[in-house]
Amino acid sequence: MAGKKSTKKQTDTEVRVKDLAGQLENAFVAGLGALSDARKEGVKRFESLVKEGEKFRKKTTDRTETLIDDVQGTIREMADDAQSKASGLLDQVRDKSRLDKLQSAFDSRVADTMDRLNVPSKNDIDAINRKLNKIIKLLNEQGKPAAKKKVAKKKTASKRTTKKTAARKKAAKTSKKTSK
Known about the structure:
Layout: H1 2-116, H2 122-142, H3 147-179
C-alpha cells in the first residue's frame, strides 16, 4: 500500500507540475499577446502623437504669423509717423527759405528805391564817417586853425564825391535795367 501512495503522490505531483507548466505557458503566451497589442497600440499611439504634434505646430505657426503681422503693422505705422514728421520738418525748412527769399527781394527793392531817391546807404555813410575821422585826426595832429578851412573844403569835396558816387550808381542801375 505504501507503493500505491507514492505513485498516487507522483501522479498528483505530475498533475500539479503539468498544471503549473500549463499556467506558465498561458502566462507566457498572454505576455506575448500583450506585447503584440502594445506594439499595435504603440504604432497607433505614435500616429496619434504625430497628428497632435502637427496640430500644435499649425497653431503655433498661425500665432507666430499673427504676431509677425502685428509687429510689421506697428513698424509700418511708426515709419509712416516718422516720415510724416520728417515731411513736416522739411516743409518748415522750405518755408524758411521762402521767407529768406522774400526778405532779400524786399531788401533789394527798398535799397533800389532809396538809391533812386538819392538817400545815402549805410555804406555811403560809413565811407563819409571814415573820411571825417581821418580829417579830425589830421586836425588834432596839426592843431592849426588854418586847417579848419581845409576841412570845410574837404567836406564839400566829400559831398561832391558822394553825389558823384550816387550818380554813378544810378547810371549803372539804369544801364543794367536797359540791358535786361
